[in-house]
Amino acid sequence: IVVQQEHQLDGLYEALNGLNLAYDDLEKEAKYYKKLSNIKEDLRNYSTEEQAVGLALAWTETEWDYNANHHAEWIGICGVIPRYWKDYLDERHVKVNSVSACIEIYNFYIEQEGNKKQASKAYKGIETKRYAWLINHTLFLKNFIEHRLKQEE
Asked: Are 48 and 152 in contact (CB under 8 A)?
């Protein structure tokens, strides 16, 4: 009887383990779709070009991770420093941790700097040529995303 109950317990443990793994998979999937839903909501009021900019900047900052763990003061999907940008973003009714924040800050730099390369450089805080490749990578990614978004229209 004891051996039989032990086998039944082993079977129950295996079933429970299988359920836990399935639950973990569903939880990961739910987080993935929530992230996509958040990104879609963040982008809805912007032009295709602005959407592409926001997606490219967010990707190069955090790979679209709203919960990214940055070093120092940067937070969220776009690596924003709240003490610099919170008031500016609040005026525009934009959350600090959003792809919309990427777009609004980039637009600020476009107005200030006058061109995409300089705006990207200012957004990224790049001051030396050592990291110039990141600007080119971001702009390439922006163009690629924009092309794909226009295909979807």
From this structure: no
Tens-digit pLDDT profile for residues 90-130: 999 999 999 999 999 999 999 999 999 999 999 998 988 89
State residue 75 phi and psi, 5-degree precision. Answer: -135, 160
pTM confidence score = 0.77
**Torsion (CA) 40, 41, 46, 52 in degrees, nearest 10:** -30
Q: In angstroms, rounded to a whole number, what is the distance separating the alpha carbons of residues 46 and 94? A: 12
107, 91, 93, 90: which is closest to 54 by C-alpha? 107
The greatest distance separating any two alpha carbons of the chain, rounded to the nearest whole angstrom, comes to 81
3-state helix, strand, coil in the chain (%, to 5): 75, 0, 25
Residue with tokens 């009714």: 93
